[in-house]
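Record 1 of the preview.
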Amino acid sequence: MLTFIIRRLVQSAIVLMIIVVVTFTLPYFQPHGIYAPAYAALGSRINPLNVHIWAQQHGLTQSYFVRLVKYADQLIFHFNLGHSFKQSLSVNSIIALYVPRTVWLALSALIFTIIIAIPLGIFQASRRNTVVDYAATGTAFVLYAMPAFLLCMLVIDAFGFHWPRLPISPPSGVAPWAIFTDPKAFILPVGCLTLLSVAGLSRFMRGTVLEVLVQDYVRTARAKGCSSRRVLWRHAFRNALGPIVTILGLSIPGLFGGALIIEDVFNYSGLGVQTINAAITLDVPTVLGITVLVAIFTLLGNLMADVALGLIDPRIRIEGAK
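->
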C-alpha cells in the first residue's frame, strides 16, 4: 500500500509542476503582457519610463526561465501565490479570507449529496423500470441539464417570495462557521449546489449497481438463496463503491465551479465572488492564485480517491504495481 501511495504522490507532483508552468506562462498573454501589473499599480502615472522602472524593481525584466524558477520556488516551498497590485494585498491573505467560506459551502453540499444520491441510486436500481425509477430519472435529467444560475433563480423566486419564506442570501461579511450558527440562511445555496450534484451522482450510482447486479457472482449468490436485500447491500453495493469513490474525488472541482455561480447569484462573499471580481478587474495574480489552489484541491481529491479505491479493492494496488 505504501508503494501505491508513493506512486500516486509522484504522479500528483508531476501534474502540479505542469500546472505551475502553465499558470506562470498565462500572464504573458494578457493585455500589456507581463508588464500588466505595472499598469495596474501605476494608475495615472503610466508612461514608458515609469513602467520600465517599476517592472525592473519588481523583477519583471528578468528572463522567462529565471522568473519561472523563482515562481516555482516561492509557490512550492513557501506557498506564496503572489501579490495583487489591484488590491494591494498578497493573494494568500485574500484567499485566506474567502476560501473557508467556500470550503464549508462545498463540503456541506458534498455531504448532503452523498447522503441523498447513493441511497437514491441504489433504490432506483432495485426498482428499475418502474414508475418511481422513471420519475427519478426524469427529474435527474432535468436537474443535470439545467444551468446552475437558472435553478438558483427559480429557487429564489419560489422560496424567497411565494412559498414559506427563506432567506435568499446569507448575511454579508459572515464568519466561515456561520453555516452552523445561522443554518437557515444557507438552506437555499447549499440546497441548489446539492441538487446539481445529486442528479449526476445518483444516475451514475444507478448504472454502476445495475452493472454489478448482472455479474456472475451475484447470480451465484442468488442461486445459493441470498435474499434480494442481502445481494443488493452485501454484494452489489460494496462492489459498486469503487467507481463512486473515483467520481467523488473528481467532483471536487465541479463543486468549486458550481459554488462560483451559487455564490454570485446568492451574493455570498466566498471564493466564487472573489474570482469573478478579480476577473472583471483584470486582477490576474488573484485569478491565477485561485486557479492553482483549486488545482491543488483537485489533485488532493484524486489522491484521496485513489487511496480509498486501493483500500476498497486490493486488485487496484496489485495491478498498478505491475
